[in-house]
């Protein structure tokens, strides 16, 4: 792991999915997370980027428009059953590639049950649509808030070498 997340500024939380990507932003003091948008992905619903996917341009515009200084990417390390998620390495690769493409420091956070938490939040607001699409940005805000609330020693930037298994 790299340095602690000490520098100020807005963080962008990402809840990555095969068909949609939820995006959330923190305030500049890194105290509160808020849902921003849901981006629909091109392609077949696979986890990795597809060649020519328009999503990267949308994320780059969000990062520029909101002066984003870091990326918090949710990794589903485990299924709700507690079993390890065999797709976690694919999400790690996407996180690494996205961080590199956006030229932003990367922070990983166990997305745990962010989608389930988003469904619970939505139940408390019955006037809103209950589609899965409307939950992705709420899930992104939930995972970003979890990162912001984590003890400082758990909020560390991930180095490129650590993602590739080259450093500890």
From TrEMBL:
EC number of the protein: 3.1.-.-
Top-level taxon of the source organism: Bacteria
Family listed: Belongs to the YqgF HJR family.
UniProt entry tagged with the keyword Cytoplasm: yes
Pfam families noted in UniProt: RuvX
PANTHER family to which the protein is assigned, alphabetical: POLYNUCLEOTIDYL TRANSFERASE, RIBONUCLEASE H-LIKE SUPERFAMILY PROTEIN (PTHR33317)
Hydrolase listed as a keyword: yes
Primary localization: cytoplasm
Boundaries of every YqgF/RNase H-like domain copy: 9-118
GO CC annotations on file: cytoplasm
Entry protein name: Putative pre-16S rRNA nuclease
Organism listed in the record: Leptospirillum ferrodiazotrophum
One term of GO molecular function: nuclease activity
